[in-house]
Specification:
The complex is a heterodimer of chains A (79) and B (408). Chain A has four helices and no strands. By secondary structure, chain A is an all-alpha fold. Chain A has a single domain, classed as ACP-like (Non-ribosomal Peptide Synthetase Peptidyl Carrier Protein, Chain A). Chain B folds into two domains: 169 residues, no CATH class; 220 residues, no CATH class. The longest helix of chain B has 44 residues. The two termini of chain B are 41 Å apart. Classes of the chains: A mainly alpha (79), B mainly alpha (408). At the A-B interface, helix 3 of A face helix 11 and helix 12 of B. Chain A: Its main location: cytoplasm. Chain A: Pfam families: PP-binding. Chain A: Pathway: Cell wall biogenesis; lipoteichoic acid biosynthesis.
């Protein structure tokens, strides 16, 4: 489980280019502008490639994926 | 026969109130009278599409039958035991679902005098809903087709003429549920509040800017415009502000009625406007302006386009893909508004501003010490965004067409 968490946080840090992700995993990715639609699509593709989690665009609801912690929870629930 | 335009006159609200009473009373006893809700919706559809609008009513019936068959067929195809999911069938389903809208939208190009006989009030918004359903069926998120629920969703009359655009899975969650009395009282209070704000926006502020102010400033701007080639004058700036305010208050007011009436019926239709003029950049603006439409374009066009381009490695540069995505999105949005030069320029203008904003954000990330982030810079960015948006609405208004080419 910890492995998933680490991978997700790593992907998010790479995509946003921000240290905030690991320092503050409850930060709102969309309200802060860290992640936009382009970033979201890249996130979904990375999840597919690295963790074999198949999340279609329809699955993506910004409120459910709003923070790094929520993304981790979502990915864990889909594995 | 009485024919009513949705939310346009006091009579419509009077009938609404009478029709809503049994629903409100039922909900207070934690009951939904499904047959009454259906009858109520049906009566209002008749009121909107009868008499002089009968042609539109018949078009609506034909359209509904077509989309029912199409969606039913596609859901059936996708839920076959062998798990069929061909891209060609999906593309065909999407093309067929938008075909009626495309015909209606392009008829004026060939025959400007007569609107298409297939057209009716709200065809765009119904089409958006159906296309959303087909995409979610493709993604495996919608797994069954229930004709009654589909009709309730598609023809939900509070939002039929101009949205907000709801999503099937969200709508059905509300429709299937009967809220507790406490929860319903909360919805009722919010609903009534939204309708009241809607009155203020549409019938007072929208009326003031659109009916009292705008035509007068337009007249002055047309006269003053004669003094130079581009027709520039200070009154043109006035037209820009007055039109922008009118557009916001009129449409936000209408949307509040639709959302408010939905809430009173126990359906939490998503809101359409969230203080758009307080946005600090254009990306934020599109998260706050006509939200259900911009989210629809974001989720069903932009994100899918970008997903496809990256996955199939059509272009290497992510920046180029994002920028191309903006052009595709806003060009389609512009053409959807109508095939005139000013709607298309409006779309391209917004695509350009989005691209420049992304470039600016990247630049700022690389040079974090360039500008301080304080109250002053924040206010300046809101003021700048507001003016960029108002300028785009001046293009959108078509007034420049009148000003520049009106003499023809």
């Amino acid at each position: 489980m910890d492995n998933v968490r680490e991978t997700v946080l790593e992907i998010l840090s790479d995509l946003t280019g921000s240290d905030e992700i690991k320092a503050n995993p409850d930060i709102n990715l969309f309200e802060t502008g860290l992640l936009d639609s382009m970033g979201t699509v890249q996130l979904l593709l990375e999840l597919q490639a690295q963790l074999d989690v198949d999340a279609p665009v329809s699955e993506f609801d910004r409120t459910e994926w709003a923070t790094p912690n929520k993304v981790v929870a979502k990915v864990e629930s889909m594995q | 026969m009485i024919n009513l335009q949705p939310y346009e006159n006091p009579m419509y609200f009077g009938y609404l109130l009478i029709g809503l009473l049994p629903i409100i009373i039922g909900m207070l006893y934690e009951k939904r009278f499904r047959w009454y809700e259906t009858l109520f919706s049906f009566c209002f559809l008749v009121l909107i599409f009868d008499g002089p609008k009968l042609g539109q009513g018949i078009a609506l019936i034909g359209y509904t039958i077509f989309e029912v068959l199409l969606t039913w067929g596609y859901v059936r195809y996708r839920t076959r035991p062998k798990g069929a999911n061909k891209t060609s069938i999906f593309v065909l389903a999407v093309i067929l679902s938008i075909a009626p809208l495309v015909v209606v939208k392009f008829t004026p190009l060939f025959d400007p005098q007569h609107p298409s006989i297939f057209g009716f009030l709200g065809i765009s918004y119904l089409t958006f809903k159906v296309v959303g359903m087909i995409m979610e069926t493709r993604d495996g998120m919608i797994k069954e087709f229930n004709i009654l629920k589909f009709l309730q969703f598609l023809l939900f009359f509070p939002t039929i003429s101009s949205g907000p655009i709801d999503r099937y899975r969200r709508f059905i969650k509300d429709y299937d549920r009967v809220p507790t009395k406490e929860k319903y009282l909360e919805l009722l209070e919010k609903g009534v509040h939204y309708v009241m704000i809607g009155f203020l926006y549409k019938f007072i502020l929208g009326y003031f800017f659109g009916t009292l102010l705008l035509p007068n400033i337009e007249k002055i701007a047309l006269i003053n415009g004669h003094s130079n080639v581009l027709g520039l004058s200070w009154s043109l700036v006035g037209v820009m502000y007055a039109y922008s305010m009118y557009l916001f208050f009129d449409f936000a007011g209408y949307s509040l009625f639709a959302v408010g009436i939905s809430y009173i019926m126990g359906i939490q239709t998503p809101i359409n406007f969230n203080k758009p003029f307080a946005s600090w950049n254009i990306k934020e603006f599109w998260n706050r302006w006509h939200m259900t439409l911009s989210f629809w374009f974001r989720d069903y066009i932009y994100m899918r386009f970008v997903f496809f381009m990256i996955k199939h490695k059509v272009l290497k540069s992510r920046i180029a893909i994002a920028n191309l995505g903006y052009v595709v999105l806003f060009l389609i949005m512009g053409i959807w508004h109508g095939e005139t030069w000013y709607y298309i320029v409006y779309g391209l203008f917004h695509a350009t501003v989005m691209i420049l904003t992304d470039a600016w954000l990247r630049f700022k990330k690389k040079h974090p010490d360039l500008l301080p982030s304080n109250r002053f810079t924040k206010v300046m960015s809101v003021v700048l965004t507001f003016h960029v948006v108002c300028f785009s609405f001046l293009i959108f208004s078509g007034f420049l067409d009148k000003l520049w080419f009106g003499f023809r």
